[in-house]
Amino acid sequence: MIKSMTGFGRGDSQVGDKCFQVELKSVNHRYMDVSIKLPKKFTYLEESIRKVIKSNIQRGRIEAYITYESIGESDINVAVDMPLAKEYLKALLRIEEELSIETDVTTSVIARFPDVIKIEKKEENEDEIWQCLQEALNNALNQLVIMRQEEGDKLQVDLLKRLNKTRDFVAQIKDRSPIIVQEYRQKLIERIKEILDEEFSLDDNRVAAEVALFADKSNITEEIVRLYSHINQFSNTLQEDDAIGRKLDFLLQEMNREANTIGSKANDLIIANLVINIKSEFEKMREQVQNIE
User: Which positions carry the signal peptide feature in this UniProt record (predicted)?
Assistant: First the structure.
């Protein structure tokens, strides 16, 4: 089963008061490229996320967007250093007493002094965090893989259809090939008679030698055999359960090369038109192959 490199998946998960949402988007890429955007405090999990993605996908550019929300208590602690606050208060009262001035000592005044109030982050359970994130990530990956497989099924149907059309064109070329030499011999004789006196005696040996030379130069049997072989390889590769995009692209290059050779050697208008049809199908197939994992 082939897979497309285009897809999207979203996954959510909640463990305790922790909620993660993961969105994955994949597009065409020659190799495997993973881009991850997540809250800064979870950057230590980036490599683990990358490994999970790569274990499910072999090729393409994957963009992962991860958001986090805590629906319970805040993950911030506000701590008060009471001994320090008392010392500040003693100092203020002493100033009031010794300088005989009235002061308005309030809680807000003392709270403004350095280090009286401290903001601290609560320690997180890293295993619990990863468990929650991994579940959301796996849910998103499942959706993404399913979408890529569904798109891959459509690509496979289209490629097989075009491959069958190509086989038909090659079969027509194979049937046409032997006729080319016969037509060349007839045209050669007619041309000679047209130029020379019709009563001029033709040298059958010279004509046969000329026709044999033409037949040798225009022989496309090997190219047809190789093209059939590549077509069969392409068809068999479509049934493999692996990343086959680059292999298919290589086979298309070889198929296109054989088609070009057939067109240049055959020296025949009908075959040239059939080659144009074949190359048109190859071009459409190449566009599809660019999107296969």
Answer: none
* Residue 199 identity (one-letter amino acid): E
pLDDT tens, residue by residue, 68-93: 987 766 566 777 888 888 888 888 88
For residues 112 and 283, the model is more confident at: 283
Alpha carbons 69 and 21: distance in angstroms, whole number? 9
> Residue 235 — very low, low, confident or very high, per pLDDT cuts 50/70/90?
very high
Sorted by where each begins, the domain ranges of the chain are 7-73+125-148, 76-121, 150-289
More confident residue, 210 or 131: 131
Beta-bridge partner residues of 33:
61
Measured between alpha carbons, how far is 285 from 113 in angstroms, rounded to an integer? 73
CATH architecture of 7-73+125-148: 2-Layer Sandwich (3.30)
CA distances from 3 to 139, 144, 234 (A): 18, 11, 15
- Write out the DSSP string of 229-252: HHHHHHHHHTT-SS--HHHHHHHH
- Exposed (0-12), middle (13-18) or buried (19+): which is 35, by Cβ within 10 Å? exposed
